[in-house]
Structures
1.
Amino acid sequence: MYNSNAVGSTANTASGSRVFRYEVVGLRQNSQTDRVSYPIRQSGSTFINVPYNRMNEVMQQITRLGGKIVSIQPLDADSKINGNVTPEQNETAVKVETGEGNQPGAKKKPMTQAKAKTDIPVNIYRPNSPFVGRVISNEPLVKEGGIGICQHVKFDISAGDLRYLEGQSIGIIPPGTDKNGKPEKLRLYSIASTRHGDDVDDKTVSLCVRQLEYTHPETKETVYGVCSTYLTHLKPGDEIKITGPTGKEMLLPEDPDAKVIMLATGTGIAPFRAYLWRMFKDNEKAANPDYQFKGLAWLVFGVATTPNVLYKEELEEIQAKYPDNFRVTYAISREQKNPEGGRMYIQHRVAEHAEEIYKLLEDEKTHVYICGLKGMEDGIDAALSAEATKEGKDWKVYQRELKKAGRWHVETY
């Protein structure tokens, strides 16, 4: 993954001065053929010499040009492979994957990874021209005995240019018309996969979707959400209209030493699953050599019953493998009791750990993320307000300071 702070400093380190040789097959011939359906050249290999601080960037560009990396070999800057490699030859090799230098005035293709706020991908696809993807899989997340329907839906986006970062959302446009006879409007859903996708091949995006179900207050009929019902019942191969990505509020800090506190209810787990995969999954760690998480990730997760703990196996696997870096605390409302004897909700868990959370907040590396039902916000504020008072501070004032510093992130509905 591209990390602006790491790249800016790496060039001055021993690792930053290293060069790696990629052996690539299947590259399209130039930047123009990348825009249309020209045949992909399959004859022979292309050798690209890449500085350490550009490895991920070039990997992404090779993938987008249809190429496949068959080997990566570390080189010294002055290494000889198949003859001498001059600085000019090295520069030409790095440009091959972008098409730069193939024709006069050709511009370099934009990077697929963000390196600053201004480089965050936003609205690549808009409602009037959505990307049409296909469903790869649609798997149930609620175990037997749980409440409701919640699915993990994975889409193939390899045919387009949709890129995204952890913490962003995409829009889904369901088919049909609304009650006024107009085309259905898009609904936003938090992305549940890392920027590399569940298969770590930059070809998919995944959502965590619960079917909305409620009783109409007047007719007493059961009403099902239009888009959530559509998504939870999709079949592999079905086409779907996607817009976006959108959002900058929930982006993960680039600092691998950060302390990340995640407060989620239900499908609010979606962006946090993406964070945790990026932090701890082996394939992701291999794909992101410039981001190796060494901080603390603490998830406080509120659900109704144990079978409703979404991604439970994944969470427990990470916890077992990284006990010093990941904690998970459940608030299971219909099975656990709060100190007053009522149902245990997420705000009760925050109150229970308020002193520890507050002390973590005093560290400038600590970020708090809240995602899920809006109703939990007041309880979280009340719990931390009580702790702030003990420290002689006004919580609302302190919270505004945290928001201004970019350390308090909220996405509720």
2.
Amino acid sequence: MIPGLATRRRFADLSEQEILALAISSEEDDARIYRSYAERLRADYPASAAVFDAMAVEEDGHRCALIDRHRERFGEVIPLIRREHVAGFYARKPVWLMENLGLERMRAEAEAMEHGAAAFYTRAAAQTQDAATRKLLGDLAAVEASHEARAGELSDENLPGDKRSEEDNAAHRQFILTWVQPGLAGLMDGSVSTLAPIFATAFATHDSHTTLLVGTAAAVGAGISMGFTEAAHDDGVLSGRGSPIKRGLASGVMTAVGGLGHALPYLIPDFWTATVIAIVIVFVELWAIAWIQNRFMETPFLRAALQVVVGGALVFAAGALIGGG
């Protein structure tokens, strides 16, 4: 049994007062989430921040209506009941787990929140006997169900076509600077710089196990070095390249991946079989780098391919010559 599940109440067992209390706390949470979105977006995406500010204000209005109804029916004391107290209730992710969400993901999360809220109010209204309370919950269900349209109106007011395009372009640019650019640099470094030591060892020893050890050490060491270098040399404040931790992670992981790609074939005991597979993987890696440059960095594919393949071939040849000599 999941810890804590046995202590949760079934939604069907909640009283009318508890349903109102749950709705009040839920509206408070949703408004707080929307304001958190707005605060994180305000500096870079002020128009989208205005959308979430308006959505938070609307949730405040729902909360006030629910509190007024509770006051009329049950008085001033509202029971403490939240989503986590109810089994199967639609959950919200903690705000600190959503800090890395991009602009489009925030919009999608908001849409999912409104859809879940509409389903809750529909179910709550069906479970309530008091006519006035049932009407309020039904009205809120209709409002939440149409909130996607309302969000569209807010977008029209605050995000006209050209503004939305500007913000989407800015979000895409930030993604490129924070993830793609350091990851691409790492993949290039890991794929190319490890060619010489791996294939020099391979042709010098003709031993798969030794080559695997050297290749793994080179890839992991290069990944750690590139990750720390990327994270340490630019904090992102002035350059606008984003979190140094994210950039260091992207660079370090992709560097290690690039090196391990042509080191792991040497898990195969037969030397020449492993070497042929490693060489094939090298060409796949180099073409993948060229594709990423073309797709995300807008580098002409032929030029990117020529640069990467020629550079990789030269490093491979150096390693083979040194090892063969």
